[in-house]
Amino acid sequence: MAISQEISYRLERLILDGGLAPGQKIPSERQLASRLRVSRAIIREALHELQGRGVIETRHGKGSFVASLVAGAEDLDEQGPLMHLFEGHPRTLYDLLEVREQLEGQAAFLAAQRATSLDRHRITKAFRALEDTDPLSNAKPDHGFHLAIVEASHNPILVHVLNGLKNMMLLTVQAAVSNLNPREEMRKTIVRQHRQLYDAVISAKPASARKVAMAHVRFVSDMLKDMEQQGDKVIRASHIPGAIAPDQSGIDFRRHSP
After folding, report:
1. What is the pLDDT along the chain (258 residues), one digit of tens a residue?
2. Cβ neighbours of 162 (radius 10 Å)
3. What CA–CA distances, in Å, run from 191 to 70, 145, 194?
4. pTM of the entire structure?
5. Which PROSITE patterns does its entry note (predicted)?
6. 61/159 Cα distance (integer angstroms)
7. Of 233, 142, 99, whose CA–CA distance to 179 is shortest?
């Protein structure tokens, strides 16, 4: 990997970890070159790469700033900055699962309270489609089942947020399908959790629906982490070969606010 790519990767790590926040000004080329002990030409190339991926933006006469990664659904397609960060930084899979656990738990709670007869019909249809699909290739119907529950929450903000993130969330479902479903015991647990979630929402049991929805996503996250800790490779739907391991740069950029 070229030095400029290593530098851009380290800067992306700082953004993911909150060391550089959306809207925050990036330190000057001179400051970065001094702190990272590389030439300004390499810094310039690294920043150019980040700009090309939409991770940072340059404002004429003001400098470079961290871009808003989740400004709207239009920014979350396969070419958006958040997708690029997902591809290059394995830990973002677990960040996304944390978001799913909280938001889908609340969506299930609200859906159990608010679902209309039409909502219940759609949820049932999505659940049947999931049941009828090969568990080794059912990422889309799995995701469709969860989205049907989200839409039944009748909370437009919640629906908008999760719909805007749907491409990212689909990748977390695909990770479960690729890594967990081939293992019989894990697959049986996931099938059972889906049935429990369906029953809780259809039976209008909000507390139970939230508990099951959160436990389901947490199970997926925990099992994937266990696999990695045991030395097994976790298959991700998107991955950039050759990404260097995360490192500690020792630089605190919080002090360089605009």
Report:
1. 688 888 888 888 777 666 676 788 888 889 989 988 999 999 999 999 888 888 888 888 888 888 876 544 444 445 555 656 656 566 788 988 999 999 999 999 999 999 999 999 999 999 999 999 998 889 999 999 999 999 999 998 898 888 777 777 888 899 999 999 999 999 999 999 999 999 999 999 999 999 999 999 999 999 999 999 999 888 876 533 333 333 334 444 444 433
2. 22
3. 32, 12, 5
4. 0.66
5. HTH_GNTR
6. 39
7. 233
Cα dihedral angle (243, 247, 252, 254), rounded to 10 degrees?
Answer: 40
The residue whose two tokens read 């808003």 is 68
Cα–Cα dist 95/98, whole Å: 5
Calculate Rg over the CA atoms of the chain. Answer: 21
Q: Is 256 helix (H, G, I), strand (E, B) or coil?
A: coil
The b-or-e profile of 220-237 (16+ CB within 10 A means b, else e) is bbebbeebeeeeeebebb
Distance, in Å, from the CA atom of 104 to the CA atom of 108, rounded to the nearest integer, reads 6
Which residue, 81, 86, 100, 97, is CA-closest to 238? Answer: 86
H/E stretch holding 137:
none
DSSP 8-state assignment for residue 58 = E
Could you tell me where the DSSP H helices lie in 64-183? Answer: 81-88, 92-114, 117-131, 139-151, 156-164, 166-179
Residue 134, H or E segment: none
Cα of 1 vs its chain's centroid, Å = 25
Backbone angles phi, psi at 23, to 5 degrees: 90, -10
Residue at token pair 């990770």: 175
Taking the C-alpha atoms of residue 207 and residue 230, their distance in angstroms, rounded to an integer, is 34
